[in-house]
Amino acid sequence: MDTIETVETATRAKASSLTCVWIPIGAALFIVALIGSAAVVPQLRPLHFFQALIYVAVILLARRNSAWGFGAGVSVPACWNYLQLFLTHNFQSGARLFWSFLHTGQLRRFDT
Prior knowledge:
Blueprint: H1 2-40, H2 45-63, H3 67-87, H4 90-104
Helix pairs in contact: 1-2, 2-3
């Protein structure tokens, strides 16, 4: 019985250490993307600043193994991606423009 509990504890510790590594990496990549987007579209800088604060909070909470950090780390990007895919259609516009760039070599709207 002790062997099974030890294996389960080790598995949980390994999973916890992996989440403590990957969540900050993913959040940092989002922050870098927000900085790049803010450089290209200055009108959206306040939005990107506040959105970056969310990811800073996710990093801090995930480092403390807080369920709030893990929940925000999953739900905020999921909601944002849902909005981009189904409501604003920015993802589809960006994909079309990227495909056009690959074929023509001309980038018409860098901000999309």
